[in-house]
Amino acid sequence: MQVIKTIRPGQPGARRFEHRFGKRLCAVRYRESTCGEKILTTVELVIDERAKPAPGVSLAAVQAHDRAEPVALSVGREELAMRRLVKQAGARWSARGKAWILKREMAVTLGLSHRIVEGLADECTDIDTSVEL
Fold it and tell me: What is the pTM (predicted TM-score) of this model?
């Protein structure tokens, strides 16, 4: 498919897609189909954003560090089954942060990524996260 025209966000022709996709929109492209009988409209979206590793540091090393990072999980007092699950996974209770501290990799494995409270683990100074969780 050959690109006929590329429109950037803010330009006429891209505004309706900006309303739909917001700041994730990178470009709107009009393409001619391979048979040449149709015009196709495609959009380019940002779906992920992360910091670039420092020079000399491999992406695999950064990802391994992120997986081992301690995170805080929000679990209500009345959720007894969920509390039992995170305890069995090796989580520790932080009275200061009122949250369970667990490795990110384990939280994602258990399907609890929606319960992660970003940045709260840093405030839970009553738990020593330097030792194995």
Answer: 0.56
The separation between the first and the last C-alpha atoms of the chain, rounded to the nearest angstrom, is: 51
Query: Would you state the pLDDT for residue 63?
Result: 78
Backbone angles phi, psi at 48, to 5 degrees: -150, 150
* pLDDT for the residue 4: 92
Question: What letter represents residue 130's amino acid?
Answer: S
Rounded Cα gap, residues 124 and 97, in angstroms: 5
Q: Cα dihedral angle (16, 20, 24, 25), rounded to 10 degrees?
A: -20
Q: Name residue 39's amino acid.
A: I
Helix (H, G, I), strand (E, B) or coil at 93: strand
Q: Would you state the pLDDT for residue 131? A: 56
How confident is the model over 25-47, as pLDDT tens digits? 999 999 998 888 999 999 999 99
Q: For the sheet containing 39-45, what is the strand order?
A: 2-7, 25-32, 39-45
The phi and psi torsions of 84 (rounded to 5 degrees) equal -60, -40
